[in-house]
Write the structure tokens for this entry.
Amino acid sequence: MSAGPRVLAIMGSGETAPTMAKVHRALFDRFGGPVPAAIVDTPYGFQENADELSARTVEFFATSVGSPVEVASYRAAAVDPIAAATALARVRAARYVMAGPGSPSYALRQWAGGPIPEALAAKLATGGIVTMASAAALTLGVLTIPVYEIYKAGEAPRWLPGLDLLGPATGLRAAVVPHYDNAEGGTHDTRFCYMGERRLRMLEATLPDDVFVLGVDSHTALVLDLEAGLATVSGLGGATVRVGGRSAFFGPGSVLDIDALGEVARRLAGGLPAEEVRAAALAEPSAAQRTPRPAASVRDRMQDLEGTFMAALDAGHAAEAVAALLGLADVVEGRLRSGEDTPDLDNAAATFRALVVRLGERAASGSRDPRAELGPLVDALLELRDRARAQKDWPTADLIRDRLLAAGVEVRDGADASSWVLAGR
């Protein structure tokens, strides 16, 4: 069974404009049906209107894309542990994740050393679609332009270290520059994400020899299909590979190997004519005709159980959801006993914790007879917590206890087992 799509979509701008709705719909269509989806609010988390921006994005996906999304709210690294765990759980459980406008330098400060980049990287490695737009797109590469500081505050052109999610996923060493064809300046040059030609040349002069500029125009998406190894340009503009002031442009509808983007950079650096380099990249054999990349069995089993869990939870079938969760725990435990140590297993363990948080959130939504409503869910969570404690998995055990307490359920540990009461009763 296929693990589903593994896609990194880079949007130059317009991520919630009508021009990009079609691109979002096409990406969701790759799943063949509804899937959990989330937006990460970090890049604009410092703004006073952050709530409004999130609400607009949720409305856009619901009405223009036809796919509901949740907000994975991680506005600052100092967010409280429960909020952080909830945001991370939503990112891990989502099959489609997007981050967008705001400040790239702010996003980097909040994400650096934290769990969000790791969760996004795991999704690109094991299955899912990650869309990074505008400010978030700037963080993808080896280096990042601090746009606000240079364009608004007048600092000298410089680079910041990027997240480099692009490199491990594609093998490309690039600095991603959205808003590449920006023309908002009118009488002054605001191309290249407001840097203009003069400042971009200053930045290029300090790039490492093996790093190139990967530009994505406004209202344009560069869709990188990691399974097929293909790069496709969608939307109103194009994508550009630039090295030392020399560029190769790939317009709307262009399809080429992801590897070819790196080869374009090397050929441009070698002095070959840009049009010759561009034509060669478009003419090379497609990666879809080469050996496919096999899916891992742990990944397949994990996604089957995750899908069963989500469907059961949405339908209100608590017993089926718990059964799927216990099945995932058995997968993780069995592989650990066999001595396996792989990224897929790590991701399965992380997915297990994310689904525990989902179950806790559902427990918190009970309304009528609290004990009758919450009983099956709380008992299941306590069973999972007892298993985690038996394995000395204290982070998971503590997470379950804290989520239950946040939902108004107090856990009382006994000599042989744990019990629970409704807090304050």
Residues 297-422 form one domain. The longest strand covers residues 6-11.
